[in-house]
Specification:
By secondary structure, the chain is an alpha/beta fold. The chain has nine helices and eight strands. The strands form two sheets. Strands 1, 4, 5, 6, 7 and 8 form a six-stranded mixed sheet that branches. Strands 2-3 form a two-stranded antiparallel sheet. Strand 2 and strand 3 form a beta hairpin. Helix 2 packs across helix 3.
Length: about 210
Amino acid sequence: MSRVCAVSRVCAGADLGLVAQGRGAEIATKRGGFAGLVTRRVAKPLIDAVNGPALAGGFEIMLACDMVVASEDSIFGIPEVKRGLFAAAGGLIRLPKRIPRAVATEMALTGDAIDAATAAEWGLINRAVPDAELDAAVHDLLTRATRGSVASKALGKQGFYAQVGLDQRAAYAEAVHLMSSAATSPDAQEGIAAFLEKRKPAFTEQPAGRELQ
């Protein structure tokens, strides 16, 4: 069973021909919105490997992922304002939560793209690497992301995103709730036993659910 989802791509967004014909709904699903992903709450960690332009809808797909590795020649942006359109697939929601508000505002209102080095500097992506090293860098991140309990990762991801935007009291309450769920799980019992017995844990490799609740 795959414990991490990853995709490598170049994407300049939706097919504007379809949009012009009023057929934009064809590129969305009920379960996940645009590209079947941007509104879907996936329990597994999502790693996006970008090897070129990630613009408009392509950029919004990237923002829906948890971690991003990009080639140095990649560019990122939401150029919808240059086409009289609106970044409706989460770009204007997620971007201000990922980078400083002033930078996000500039990207949204100018439609200008930024390069991979700038994206890495602002923490928009995890790292930028030479194109020839992209596969190796993604593999390294995948390897490290597959370690540990799948169920614990799912709860951790749920807690991480649930607490964004909450005040401190509400965030702690959410954390306590998720910790209670984790502490009583089979993986938690196995992890503690393995630590005490000085051995490698044998986790169930089952997520808390197919999708986050």
